[in-house]
Amino acid sequence: MRRFFVAGNWKMNKTIAEARDLMNAMLPLLAGIDNVDIAITPVYLAVPAMVEQCRSTGVKVGAQNLFWEASGAYTGEVAAAMVAEVCDFVIVGHSERRKYFGETDETVNRRLKAALEVGLEVIVCIGETLEENEAGLTAAVVTRQLTEGLAGITEAQAAAVTIAYEPVWAIGTGRAATPEDANRVHRDVIRPLLVAQFGEARAEQMRIQYGGSVTAENAHELFSMSDIDGALVGGASLKADSFAGIVKAASLVAIADRRAS
Ligand code: 13P
User: Fold this and answer.
1) Given a cut of 90, is residue 250 above it in pLDDT?
2) 103, 128, 166, 186: which one is catalytic?
3) For ligand 1, what atom is nearest to the CA of residue 96?
4) Prediction pTM value
5) Domains detected in the chain
6) Of all atoms in ligand 1, which is nearest to the CA of residue 94?
7) CA torsion angle for 192, 196, 198, 204 (degrees, to 10)?
8) Separation of 72 CA from ligand 1 center, angstroms?
9) Nearest-5° angle of CA 211, CA 123, CA 53?
């Protein structure tokens, strides 16, 4: 039976005070939903405050990035152990990191390894650009990102890894991938690569989130697809009711799944 993983990536939004207000509004709406893994990633500076506020709520808190070196003269960076001291998981390889900050598949892989070494859970983001999509390169790009991003990761380590498929053209555009198109990439490209690297049993357990203009309105249809195991939510995670609506959609689909099985 599937257990969905819905994570809100707040990106560079919310001061600590604003983050507190948002969680004050959000937590009551999420209370009682215990069949979905729920998480948020605020900016680094707000992570400790959110960890404190979410303690014993079941909402996990993570960071949006980390650096692979353990310490040293890397002004502005935060090491994996420093993240792990405060929270449980981290996102690596977000397309905004790739686009604005020179992230490559190789640096994604270095961050992933550093994160796993200190026991963090990791969401690894992949996804093609509009040009790549229109050129019919989606499968090729996703295959390269996943193969190079996950290089050297073992089956045991993969237990801590979630994949987020976020087509770049769908992020922040209001134009989500259709559930069928997203599912096709999850089922026909990503899952088989996970099976090849980690074996059937592990690959079946790993969650593949979809990200890109997920809303409370389209979430149910997305989660109803066979290989969409959750969502990485940007804009809609900045409002309590829309994020809670997405989590509730996951909860309802999980209940329906259980009845059907
Ligand atoms: P939107 O939900 O705003 O499209 O952002 C998706 C995303 O990038 C989450 O990491």
Assistant:
1) yes
2) 166
3) 8
4) 0.98
5) 4-260 (3.20.20.70)
6) 10
7) 30
8) 32
9) 95
